[in-house]
C-alpha cells in the first residue's frame, strides 16, 4: 500500500476493501474563520470515486494518527483518484440566475463576506450565468453595487472588494442550453488549470426551470474528478405530487448527496442555537415535553405586502411560502429527540421522525386571511387585491394560522400554533414556549384578592427565542416587586445578542453557502423530509383551493384576522405576541 501524508493511500485501501467504501466519520478539529467563532464541530471529508459521468459515488473520511484532518483534505486536495494534484484544489461557484434580485442582494454579498473573513478556500472562482448579455466587467459593476464592508469596516475592505471582483466572471446562455453550459465548462477549466476542480452551482432561478438547468449543467459542466453540488432554492413544488415529481426529475441527473435544498431560515443564528440551548443546558432538556410545556408558538410577520410581486406570490400563498418550509423546519428542530451525534444524517433522521409523527392538518384547524387597503397617518396602503399583478377575485391567503399536533410520547396533546402573515403591524420571527401553570400556587389566593397585583394563573413562564430582528433569548418569570408589600410582577431574564456579542452576526446565506462548499448537509433538507412535510399540508391546501375558501380580510398594518384568536382560544391559548406586557422590546 502506497504511503501518503495520511499514513495510508485511500484509493488503494478501498480497491482492496470494497465493502469499506462507505462514509466513515472521524472527529475533526474545530475550524475558525475571522468571525472568531467556531464554524464546525464535525466535518465529514469525503473521498470521491467517479463514475463515467463524473458523479460522486462513494466516500470516506480520514485523519492522521492524531485524529487531525490535514489541510489538503479540508481544502479538497486529496481524493480517491490518486495522489493530491500538484496545484492543490479549487472551488468554482456558479450563480445561475446571476442577474436576479436574490443573486444581487443575497448570494454575491454573502460570497464576498465569506471571502472578506477568509472563510473561502484559497483558490476559488465565481461565475455568473444568466440569459442577459453581459461582460465580465459589467457583472463586476453590478455586483459592486450591493457589496458592503458591513462586518467591521477594516481599512483593507476596498482592497478585498477589488480582489473579490477580479475573481468574478460571466457567461451568458439559455437555461436549457447544453451549449451554453459547455462554454461555461470551457471557461471554468481555464480557471481550474492544474488544480483539482470542485464545482458548486447555485440555482437562483424560478422552480419551473430547475430541471432544465440541472440536466444541461450536469451533462456538460460537471467536474470530471472533484465534487459537483447544486443548491436548490424553494419552493420545492406546490404539493406532494409536484414535489415528488421534482425530486424524481432531479435524481435522473444527480445523486441525493449532490442536491442541497436550501431553506435560509435554518441558517439563522437563533435557529442554529436552538439545539445548543436545549441539548447543552441541563435546565431546559428535562422541561422539553408535554409534562411542562403547555403550547409552542411559531410566529412570522412582515410589515409590508407583496409590493408588486403579487403575481408570483399568488401561485403559492403564505402557507406554501412560509409555513410548510420555514416554520415547519424550525418546529422539527425544536421537537426532535436527541440525535445520536451532530452528524447531518443523525440530525435529519430525527427531524423526519417528528414530521412523520405529525397529524395531517385539517381545515377546521386553519384560519386564512388577506390584507385589504388601509389609511393610517394620512398615508394610504393598498390591499393585496389592489396589486395589478394579482388576478381578480384571488382568494390566495396572505395570512394563515394553524394548530398542529405531534402524536408521540413526548408531545402528545401539545398544540403547536403557527402564524404567518404579510402587511402586519410589525416585522418579527420568533418561537414562544409557554409553560404550564404552577400546581397549587401559593400566591393564587393573594392574586384573587387583588393583593398580589398579578394573575399568577395567567402569568405562566414563557421562553422566547426571537429569530429576527434584534436576535434575543428571554425567559418570562414572576418576581416580587421591591418594597414592604407582597406584590408580584412579570419580568424578563434576557440575552440580547447585540449587547452580549458586539460582532456582526453572519447572514444566513453566508453560513449555508459555506456549509455547501464544505459538504455539510445538516442545515439542508433531505428528500424524505420534504415528502413528510408536504404530507402534512397537501390535503388542507387542496381543500382550501377546491372549496375556494374566502380569506378573512384584515387592514394593512393590523395584527391580522380576528379568527386567529378564536383558533388559539379553541386550545385555551393566547398568542404570546399580543399580550400587554410584550411589545417586542426590552
TrEMBL record:
Pfam families: G6PD_C, G6PD_N. It catalyses: D-glucose 6-phosphate + NADP(+) = 6-phospho-D-glucono-1,5-lactone + NADPH + H(+). InterPro entries: G6P_DH, G6P_DH_AS, G6P_DH_C, G6P_DH_NAD-bd, NAD(P)-bd_dom_sf. Its EC number is 1.1.1.49. One of its GO terms (molecular function) is glucose-6-phosphate dehydrogenase activity. It comes from the Eukaryota. Pathway: Carbohydrate degradation; pentose phosphate pathway; D-ribulose 5-phosphate from D-glucose 6-phosphate (oxidative stage): step 1/3. Belongs to the glucose-6-phosphate dehydrogenase family. This is Glucose-6-phosphate 1-dehydrogenase.
Amino acid at each position: 500500500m502506497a504511503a501518503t501524508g495520511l499514513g495510508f493511500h485511500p484509493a488503494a485501501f478501498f480497491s482492496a476493501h470494497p465493502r469499506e467504501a462507505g462514509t466513515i466519520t472521524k472527529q475533526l478539529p474545530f475550524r475558525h474563520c475571522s468571525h472568531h467563532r467556531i464554524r464546525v464541530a464535525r466535518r465529514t471529508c469525503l473521498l470521491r470515486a467517479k463514475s463515467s459521468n463524473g458523479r460522486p459515488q462513494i466516500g470516506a473520511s480520514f485523519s492522521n494518527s492524531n485524529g487531525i484532518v490535514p489541510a489538503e483534505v479540508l481544502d479538497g486536495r486529496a481524493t480517491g483518484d490518486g495522489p493530491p494534484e500538484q496545484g492543490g484544489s479549487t472551488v468554482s461557484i456558479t450563480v445561475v440566475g446571476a442577474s436576479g434580485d436574490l443573486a444581487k442582494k443575497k448570494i454575491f454579498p454573502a460570497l464576498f463576506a465569506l471571502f472578506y473573513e477568509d472563510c473561502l478556500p484559497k483558490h476559488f472562482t465565481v461565475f455568473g450565468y444568466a440569459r442577459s448579455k453581459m461582460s465580465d466587467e459589467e457583472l463586476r459593476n453590478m455586483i459592486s453595487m450591493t457589496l458592503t464592508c458591513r462586518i467591521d469596516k477594516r481599512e483593507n475592505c476596498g482592497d478585498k472588494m477589488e480582489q473579490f471582483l477580479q475573481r468574478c466572471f460571466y457567461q451568458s446562455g439559455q437555461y436549457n442550453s447544453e451549449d451554453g453550459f459547455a462554454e461555461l465548462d470551457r471557461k471554468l477549466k481555464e480557471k481550474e488549470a492544474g488544480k483539482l476542480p470542485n464545482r458548486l452551482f447555485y440555482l437562483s432561478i424560478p422552480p419551473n426551470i430547475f430541471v432544465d438547468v440541472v440536466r444541461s449543467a450536469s451533462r456538460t459542466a460537471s467536474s470530471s474528478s472533484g465534487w459537483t453540488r447544486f443548491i436548490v432554492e424553494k419552493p420545492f413544488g406546490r404539493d406532494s405530487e409536484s414535489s415528488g415529481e421534482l425530486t424524481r426529475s432531479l435524481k435522473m441527473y444527480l445523486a441525493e448527496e449532490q442536491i442541497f435544498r436550501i431553506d435560509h431560515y435554518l441558517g439563522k443564528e437563533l435557529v442554529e442555537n436552538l439545539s445548543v440551548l436545549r441539548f447543552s443546558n441541563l435546565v431546559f432538556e428535562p422541561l422539553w415535553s408535554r409534562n411542562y410545556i403547555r403550547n409552542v408558538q411559531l410566529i412570522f410577520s412582515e410589515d409590508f405586502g407583496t409590493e408588486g410581486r403579487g403575481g408570483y406570490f399568488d401561485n403559492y400563498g403564505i402557507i406554501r411560502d412560509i409555513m410548510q418550509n420555514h416554520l415547519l423546519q424550525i418546529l422539527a428542530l425544536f421537537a426532535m429527540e436527541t440525535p445520536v451525534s451532530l452528524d447531518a444524517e443523525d440530525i435529519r433522521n430525527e427531524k423526519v421522525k417528528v414530521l412523520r409523527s405529525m397529524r395531517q392538518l385539517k381545515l377546521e384547524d386553519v384560519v386564512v386571511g388577506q390584507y385589504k387597503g388601509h389609511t393610517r397617518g394620512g398615508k394610504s396602503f393598498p390591499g393585496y387585491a389592489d396589486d395589478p399583478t394579482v388576478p381578480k377575485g384571488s382568494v390566495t391567503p396572505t395570512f394563515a394560522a394553524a394548530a398542529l399536533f405531534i402524536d408521540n410520547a413526548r408531545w402528545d396533546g401539545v398544540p403547536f400554533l403557527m402564524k404567518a402573515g404579510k402587511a402586519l403591524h410589525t416585522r418579527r420571527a420568533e418561537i414562544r414556549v409557554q409553560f404550564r401553570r404552577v400546581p397549587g400556587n401559593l400566591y393564587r389566593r393573594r392574586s384573587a384578592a387583588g393583593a398580589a397585583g398579578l394573575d399568577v394563573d395567567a402569568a405562566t413562564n414563557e421562553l422566547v427565542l426571537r429569530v429576527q430582528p434584534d436576535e434575543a433569548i428571554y425567559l418570562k418569570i414572576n418576581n416580587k416587586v421591591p418594597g414592604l408589600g407582597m406584590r408580584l410582577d412579570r419580568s424578563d431574564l434576557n440575552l440580547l445578542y447585540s449587547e452580549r456579542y458586539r460582532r456582526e452576526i453572519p447572514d444566513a446565506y453566508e453560513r449555508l453557502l459555506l456549509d455547501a462548499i464544505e459538504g455539510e448537509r445538516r442545515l439542508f433538507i433531505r428528500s424524505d423530509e420534504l415528502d413528510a412535510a408536504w404530507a402534512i399540508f397537501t390535503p388542507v391546501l387542496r381543500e382550501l383551493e377546491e372549496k375556494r375558501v374566502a380569506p378573512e380580510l384584515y387592514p394593512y398594518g393590523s395584527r391580522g384576522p380576528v379568527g386567529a384568536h378564536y383558533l388559539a382560544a379553541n386550545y385555551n391559548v393566547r398568542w404570546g405576541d399580543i399580550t400587554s406586557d410584550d411589545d417586542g422590546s426590552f
